[in-house]
Amino acid sequence: MKSVIYGVSLTIRFKVNSIMKDMKFYGSTTVGERGQIVLPAKLRNDFHIIKGDQLLVVGNAESYRIVLVNPESMSTYLDFMSKQIDKMKSTIKKK
C-alpha cells in the first residue's frame, strides 16, 4: 500500500513541478470588497498590460487554479486546436 501512495505522491509532485517550472512569483494581492484584485506592477510591465486591456479568466475550482489569458492568445490557440481536430476527423473518416 505504501508504494501506491508513494507513486501518487511522485505523480502529484511531478505535475506541480512541471506546471510551476517556468512560473515567476510576482507578489501577492488581496481581494477587495467588490471582488476586485490589483495585478502587481511588475506583472503588468512584464506582460504589457495597460488600463482598459481585457483578460479572460479561466479556472478550475478543484485544483484551486485561476488563470488570466490574453483574448488574442486564446483565440490563436483555439484556432490551432480547431484545425488539429479537423485533421483528426479527416483521418478518422478515411479509415
Describe the structure.
A two-stranded antiparallel sheet has the order 1-2. Residues 1-8 have low confidence and may be disordered. The protein has three helices and two strands. With 95 residues, the protein is mainly alpha-helical. The protein is elongated and about 55 Å long. The protein has a domain at 40-95.
Identify the strand order in the major beta sheet.
Answer: 1-2
Oligomer: single chain
Distance between the termini: 44 Å
Q: How much of the residues is beta strand, in percent?
A: 5-15%
Binned, the helix content reads: 40-55%
Shape field: elongated
Average pLDDT = 82
Rg measurement, Å: 19 Å
Structure class: mainly alpha
- Low-confidence segments, given as residue ranges, are 1-8
The sequence of SSEs as H and E is HHEEH
